[in-house]
Design a protein that fits this description.
globular, Aspartate Aminotransferase, domain 1, alpha/beta, 385 residues, 2 domains, binds pyridoxal-5'-phosphate, Aspartate Aminotransferase, domain 2, seven-stranded mixed sheet
Length: 385
């Protein structure tokens, strides 16, 4: 384990590896150990480490103007909003920049409750939406485990996964919105049926409720499409995104329809850091790079390759989409994760003890996949103790 730092609250179980630098998909520690990172810091380092275009965009913006708030107009903020709106599904034209996934969801829920004047949110079992009060209230199991507030800010009903009838029954005239991850990340890369996602859109429209897609983990190319909305061909009213959006620079956004945006007046929403120039410069660079380097094609190709070549050793099946993949294991997924890290490959676990998660940088290539495939093949019962 890493040496504990006395001044940090020790709320994270930490891996026995302390990176000091990174290039591409490789992280390096002080002793020169090099680890292949197939987890990207919870899906954040979408273009790997030290990407020249991201480094250049940040350095150039830092030199020019490294901060100003939303009290003034910034050309770089306008440009990033235009870029993100053009990348987002058609009809989602207006952007509110924030700092994180939870903050994006908190604001999307606030907008939905206000716009409809209703008090109930429907969420899906096993979902994760963040740790702030409203985002955690729609997170499965949070209330009984770590929620920490005396009550939730709205009524919440949880519907079971992939059960169209139960979802249709849950979304009624009191429902302000349904919030759903197109592929549930922390739950273990659980992908919904197309039928369920289509029914979700239709049920919301019928009930006059809004559809919020939480694309904090699935968005910005991770599923091999710009957003999960494109994968399922479902248009939400609000879409939230963060993680890969800044490729490692903290940022997030709520993207919404013009109809919702026109009802928002100065003072209705706010944030100090959201939409800062450094974040905006890097958001532009991330989306530009995804488009110019055909990153979405790469995600689809590498996803297929992982499915073809990694279902062996301790892996019995693979679920998910794009490069948000859940590898099912008979032994504990944490044992497989630990054994891979001993072989200098970093992967993630999930809320399901028998699902290991791959969330690699989207620039993963055949050599990286081959290395994972042969490491998995080598793992036997003894190395998984
Ligand atoms: C789907 C989803 N929503 C929201 C969040 C919360 O994002 P953040 O940790 O940036 O607040 C996460 C983080 O893992 C997530 O996966």
């Amino acid at each position: 384990m890493s040496t504990p730092r006395a001044q940090l609250t020790e709320v994270y179980p930490m891996l026995p590896f302390e990176p000091v630098s990174g290039t591409g998909l490789y992280l390096r520690d002080d002793a020169g150990r090099e680890v292949l990172d197939l987890y990207a810091g919870h899906a954040v380092a979408a273009l790997g480490y030290g990407h020249p275009r991201l480094v250049h965009a940040l350095a150039q913006q830092a030199e020019q103007l490294y901060f100003q708030s939303n009290a003034v107009n910034l050309r770089i903020r306008d440009a990033a909003a235009d870029r993100l709106a053009a990348f987002a599904p058609e009809g989602l034209d207006r952007v509110f920049f924030v700092n994180s996934g939870a903050e994006a969801n908190e604001n999307a829920l606030r907008i939905a409750l206000r716009a409809t004047g209703r008090k109930k949110i429907v969420a899906i079992e096993r979902s994760f939406h963040g740790r702030s009060a409203a985002a955690a209230a729609v997170t499965w199991g949070a209330k009984d485990r770590w929620y920490g507030f005396p009550r939730t800010p709205m009524d919440v009903d949880f519907a079971p996964r992939n059960d169209v009838a139960a979802l249709e029954a849950a979304i009624d005239a009191d429902t302000a919105a349904l919030i759903i991850e197109p592929v549930q990340g922390l739950a273990g890369a659980f992908d919904f049926s197309h039928e369920f996602m289509t029914a979700a859109r239709e049920a919301c429209t019928r009930a006059g409720a809004l559809l919020i897609l939480d694309e904090v983990q699935t968005g910005v190319g991770r599923l091999g499409e710009p957003f999960g909305a494109d994968l399922y061909d479902v248009r939400p009213d609000l879409l939230t995104t963060a993680k890969g959006l800044g490729g490692g620079f903290p940022c997030g956004a709520v993207v919404m329809t013009q109809d919702l945006a026109v009802d928002l007046k100065p003072g209705d929403l706010g944030t100090t850091f959201g939409g800062g120039p450094l974040a905006c410069a890097v958001i532009e660079a991330v989306i530009d790079t995804i488009e110019s380097d055909n990153v979405l094609d790469n995600v689809r190709a590498m996803s297929a390759l992982v499915r073809e070549t990694c279902t062996h050793g301790p892996i019995t099946a693979i679920q998910g989409a794009g490069l948000l993949l859940g590898l099912k294991t008979e032994v504990k997924a944490s044992a497989v994760r630990n054994a891979l890290l001993e072989r200098d490959i970093l992967v993630g676990t999930s809320a399901d003890p028998h699902i290991m998660r791959l969330l690699p940088p989207l620039i993963l290539n055949e050599n990286h996949v081959a290395r994972l495939s042969s490491a998995l093949k080598e793992l036997n019962d003894e190395s998984l103790q």
